[in-house]
Amino acid sequence: MSFGTWTDSRIKKCNWIDIQFLKLSIVGFVLMIAKLWKPLLSLDWYWYALIFVLAAIKPVSKVFGK
């Protein structure tokens, strides 16, 4: 069993509230890393916008694609 199929089988057991809490915990973890590692927050705003756009391409294309 690959890691992808294992995670798919586990995530299917979760309802939407569990998934939202998972997202919230990931946001909290990322904010903690940003707080502990000062150089991460010293980037200009457009680097964060570029990361956002690049990370959103695949999920958005999957949602709005055929």
Keywords:
single chain, 66 residues, mainly alpha
How would you describe this structure to a colleague?
This protein has 66 residues and is mainly α. It has one domain. The chain is 76% helix and 0% strand. The chain contains 3 helices and no strands. The protein has helices at residues 3-11, 16-36, 45-64. The two termini are 29 Å apart. The mean pLDDT is 89.
Distance between the termini: 29 Å
Please describe the biggest sheet, giving its number of strands, its sense, and whether it closes into a barrel. Answer: none
Q: List unreliable stretches of 5+ residues.
A: none
Query: How many strands appear in the DSSP assignment?
Result: 0
Relative strand content: under 5%
The tally of helices reads 3
On the 0-100 scale, what is the average pLDDT? 89
Helix content: over 70%
Classify the oligomer.
single chain
Q: What is the CA-atom radius of gyration, in angstroms?
A: 16 Å
Content-based structural category = mainly alpha
Q: What string gives the helices and strands in order?
A: HHH
Number of domains: 1
Shape, per Cα inertia axes: extended
